[in-house]
């Protein structure tokens, strides 16, 4: 009991005194310094209330850990790779999916620019089939780069030519310099091509029920509720929707902390919708914040993701404010109970 109380006190000190979770890493800062928390005086009274029109709920018996302090207790990462599999569930460790690109990443040399987080995802494969014998697509973050025609045999080349030269979560915002294509590693393979991800933001939801049934239950329910709030804004993008802008929602494999389900990672381009600085409390009656759709900067101006906000303990009634404040404006509604960590490349800050 004494050990548990001591651990709780130490965790509280980290949050209040801005001590990093890793004492050897002095770049970590407090939750409120990393991402602005919502404030009714700035953001309006809606940020103080959960959605009242939400009729979706988790199954009876859906219980999670509610007492731990979350912030700062995640393992830092430098890059994040999502592999398209056209599946929503996988074997317990995705690197053990036989014949898959995930397995090939597990066997390949590690990237030279820091820890790479690897996630299987439900992004559609080019053939819309979960056949690992076919080339697939990967999404490289924070670069927001889509690499096509990736096979297990080409993974070492992808690491060497793309991931090693990609921006990391600590890289300053600067235009990407990744090659648009590279020769295939084998004579009978297709060339690997790279293009910008068309979306302005991504919401990644853990759906791996082989690790925890709650993830398999929560992800589809949250996706349905998120769609309800994104569609009126013109921001919802289905799995095959390549229109510029908008928000892609993908199911991914285990990211850790399933006892805090539902976990969500929100990657945003810098000022993704042009409304980061809007103060909703100053809007007149009937005025709404609408996302701005500026002309595309093109590949030459693409800097990738500016932020990633990693949240947990999300419930369907959180989705409205998740869209309004986190996705649209990069703010956190419940930092004390839901923020696990993340980074802001524009500020040069991170939580680990």
Automatic annotation (TrEMBL):
<dbReference type="Pfam" id="PF06999">
    <property type="entry name" value="Suc_Fer-like"/>
</dbReference>
<dbReference type="InterPro" id="IPR036249">
    <property type="entry name" value="Thioredoxin-like_sf"/>
</dbReference>
<dbReference type="InterPro" id="IPR009737">
    <property type="entry name" value="Aim32/Apd1-like"/>
</dbReference>
<protein>
    <submittedName>
        <fullName>Sucrase/ferredoxin-like-domain-containing protein</fullName>
    </submittedName>
</protein>
